[in-house]
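Give me the fold.
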Amino acid sequence: MTLDLLFVLLGALAAGLMSGLAGFGTALAASAFWLYVLSPAVAVPLILAASVIAQVASVPAFKDQLDWRRTMPMVAAGVAGIPIGVWLLDHLPADTVRMAVGVVIVVYSGFGLLVRMKAPFPGKRPVADGAVGFVGGVLGGMIGLSGALPVIWSQFRGWSPAVARSIYQPFNTLILSIACGAQIVAGFFTEEVIWLVVYAAPVTLIGTFLGVKLFSRIGADTFRLVILWFLLFAGAGLLVQG
């Protein structure tokens, strides 16, 4: 086994584990490994494929909890953002995007770990939810990071882990599936990417099932800390890569 393939498999395991545990984070976890050994043109479609595999595999465990009614406005806005993200993938330096997203994630998670504040945006906010969904769609189409902003938004909204996951899990599943399809049509899935998907898929599934088991065993406060620490390290990783 080559070192590059080892990194691919480790990234697949981390991606599946985080997706199963938190309902998002496939791209953030995988990129920490894959962007060190793969070019962005190969890593991004591989990340999207692994994200779809992990999301679809974990959905049955939460199928009775998913809130499609509240999710669909975010999805509709997110779908509108996907073509923009796919276009930007070809026209905007990936490092610039990673740096910008990394800064936002690090600032938010660092503040969340230091200060426990009351959720500033409770109640019904369909326009704001839609705006978050749109940006999530752009980031999903571009670099597979559709979930980070909705997860941060869920904490600003004060949703419990169960409520938050019931909304952003189906959002992630649909947006990443559509973004993956858009990149296939755009020709990003080369023979190299397809072979890497074949290698990574079984390991991603193993990680996903382990993550789902862990989710059922942790409380709300522990879940919040896991999310914040993961976001902090993932955001720092994006800054280093940028």
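The longest helix spans residues 161-185.
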